[in-house]
Amino acid sequence: MIDTLIATIVSGLVLGSLYAMMASGLSVVWTTLGVFNFAHGALMMIGAFVAWTVSEAVGLGLLVGVASGTLVAALIGVLIERLLVRPYYGNRNMLLITVMTTLAAMIILEKGAQMIWGARLKQLPRLVDGEISIFSATISAHEAILVVLAPLILLSIWRFNVRTNTGRSLRAVGQNQRSAALIGIDVPVAFAIAFGLSAALAGLTGALLGSIRFITPSMGAEPLVKAMIVVIFGGLGSLGATAGAAYVIGLIEALLILWLGLYWTPFVLFLMMIVVLIFRPNGIFGGRQ
Amino acid sequence: MGRLLDVSRVTAGYGSITVLRDISIGLDAGECVGLFGPNGHGKTTLLQTISGLLKPTGGTISFDGADITGARPRDIVNAGLVQSPQGNTLFGEMHVLETLELASISKRARHGKAQNLRRVFELFPRLDERRTQKAKTLSGGERQMLSIGCALMCAPRLLMLDEPTLGLSPRLKKELAAAVGNIAKSGVPLVIVEQDVEFLLSLTQRLYMIEHGEVVREIDGDNAPDHDAIMQLYFGEAAH
Ligand SMILES: Nc1ncnc2c1ncn2[C@@H]1O[C@H](COP(=O)(O)OP(=O)(O)OP(=O)(O)O)[C@@H](O)[C@H]1O
Ligand SMILES: [Mg+2]
């Protein structure tokens, strides 16, 4: 019994790490631009495919592959901001319009990936082979890397936000664009940086996930939905709340799978989400708005 | 070489609404000028157009001999033309020190950062006492101080202040007026928007009265109106 519980908690930790990396990217874009990027999952998928092409098809090795996947996703992120978000800035219906344009980007990227890479399942090798046991539970060393990496990445985003001028200027732009412009911050550049950073995070997550799950054009959909649930629980405003919610959702999901099985888990998760939305519209950790 | 700031026949507005009509103002280095006039007649719009937040539909703006018509706000700040906007709310979630440090982000301002910070805290000791307080929890007067402090952190070569004492108690108003006087004495040319003409006359050499987006009257030391004449200016205009 204890063994199963530990195994469940460990797998919850792996899920939580994945969701934390996804949701923190969504949060960066939201706090800077006030846009919810529906193409975030598709950017993750692009990261995985590019990593596969560079490391497997071209044969440059996994590390170069992961780096390329991250970079290409970042570039596409910047492109999405430039072409599909920026033209609608200042529009009264911007939030709604960008829901549609980023959804369009998602579809274009998914269909594009299908055309380029085909429908055949692909998978990346692992960064390191072998397994690691934590008490009585065993996970692959690759998953262990993900678990260690996620908090490190969150911590560095947090430091970037608080300590660096660039990070601070992203926050400033998110809080008051006019004032930001009037102290000499280049607002369009801040938009591009936010989107690029967020997309890089998605690409990296995808490239790492490509060793655990199959790489398919729609592989980003499920993590995006989970990241959305995370964001609803945590609110989008603060990185800490978003990260906290990611681990809580990861653990809840792992426990639900243990008790109810795979079939009922999404149903219960969505039910919880609706209840949260009714009683705490700003999220459990979200506080006021 | 022309004037430090030269706004020449500028037309600007919001969408289809024209607010500024063919307006011209200017100042030379070492000069302070004031803008006043009834509410809603385009003073803030003029400053926003000069700062690049609004693109003029006609006319030209030059700063220190360089054409800045339609330039990006960032480049205008970089050139040293800085504004402390009206009723500024700044960045609610950021604390005072963080905000001031960030305000020296432009290339010109970066190396003078420590010195400018010291100067801001000298000018506004209240900000010094509240270094780690979030902007949203500051009082109205303190916010105004932070806003002016931010503008000073940008190392301005010309500073535009949009109603720096708006909505403040007489005591706070005095405090801020003294600070603005200090800034002027330190040699920074100022463009000040205020409703209080006597306050403006104590700080500036020249005043522009703005109505319906136009300069309707220019006042300098020689033809300075007395109190009654000022009342006449305001209420006489309101009559029609
Ligand atoms: N964003 C906007 N969109 C449309 N109209 C605007 C906008 N901002 C200001 N206006 C209008 O432009 C006109 C001039 O406003 P402005 O703020 O420049 O006046 P002001 O002289 O600064 O007034 P006050 O003394 O009250 O600050 C007003 O009629 C105002 O309603
Ligand atoms: Mg005004």
TrEMBL record, chain A:
<feature type="transmembrane region" description="Helical">
    <location>
        <begin position="227"/>
        <end position="250"/>
    </location>
</feature>
<keyword id="KW-0813">Transport</keyword>
<keyword id="KW-0029">Amino-acid transport</keyword>
<dbReference type="Pfam" id="PF02653">
    <property type="entry name" value="BPD_transp_2"/>
</dbReference>
<dbReference type="InterPro" id="IPR001851">
    <property type="entry name" value="ABC_transp_permease"/>
</dbReference>
<feature type="transmembrane region" description="Helical">
    <location>
        <begin position="134"/>
        <end position="158"/>
    </location>
</feature>
<dbReference type="InterPro" id="IPR052157">
    <property type="entry name" value="BCAA_transport_permease"/>
</dbReference>
<feature type="transmembrane region" description="Helical">
    <location>
        <begin position="256"/>
        <end position="279"/>
    </location>
</feature>
<keyword id="KW-0472">Membrane</keyword>
<keyword id="KW-1133">Transmembrane helix</keyword>
<keyword id="KW-0812">Transmembrane</keyword>
<protein>
    <submittedName>
        <fullName>Branched-chain amino acid ABC transporter permease</fullName>
    </submittedName>
</protein>
<feature type="transmembrane region" description="Helical">
    <location>
        <begin position="92"/>
        <end position="113"/>
    </location>
</feature>
<keyword id="KW-1003">Cell membrane</keyword>
<comment type="similarity">
    <text>Belongs to the binding-protein-dependent transport system permease family. LivHM subfamily.</text>
</comment>
<feature type="transmembrane region" description="Helical">
    <location>
        <begin position="59"/>
        <end position="80"/>
    </location>
</feature>
<feature type="transmembrane region" description="Helical">
    <location>
        <begin position="189"/>
        <end position="215"/>
    </location>
</feature>
<feature type="transmembrane region" description="Helical">
    <location>
        <begin position="30"/>
        <end position="52"/>
    </location>
</feature>
UniProtKB/TrEMBL annotation, chain B:
<dbReference type="InterPro" id="IPR052156">
    <property type="entry name" value="BCAA_Transport_ATP-bd_LivF"/>
</dbReference>
<dbReference type="GO" id="GO:0005524">
    <property type="term" value="F:ATP binding"/>
</dbReference>
<dbReference type="InterPro" id="IPR003593">
    <property type="entry name" value="AAA+_ATPase"/>
</dbReference>
<keyword id="KW-0029">Amino-acid transport</keyword>
<protein>
    <submittedName>
        <fullName>ABC transporter ATP-binding protein</fullName>
    </submittedName>
</protein>
<comment type="similarity">
    <text>Belongs to the ABC transporter superfamily.</text>
</comment>
<dbReference type="Pfam" id="PF00005">
    <property type="entry name" value="ABC_tran"/>
</dbReference>
<feature type="domain" description="ABC transporter">
    <location>
        <begin position="2"/>
        <end position="237"/>
    </location>
</feature>
<dbReference type="InterPro" id="IPR027417">
    <property type="entry name" value="P-loop_NTPase"/>
</dbReference>
<dbReference type="InterPro" id="IPR017871">
    <property type="entry name" value="ABC_transporter-like_CS"/>
</dbReference>
<dbReference type="InterPro" id="IPR003439">
    <property type="entry name" value="ABC_transporter-like_ATP-bd"/>
</dbReference>
<keyword id="KW-0547">Nucleotide-binding</keyword>
<keyword id="KW-0813">Transport</keyword>
<keyword id="KW-0067">ATP-binding</keyword>
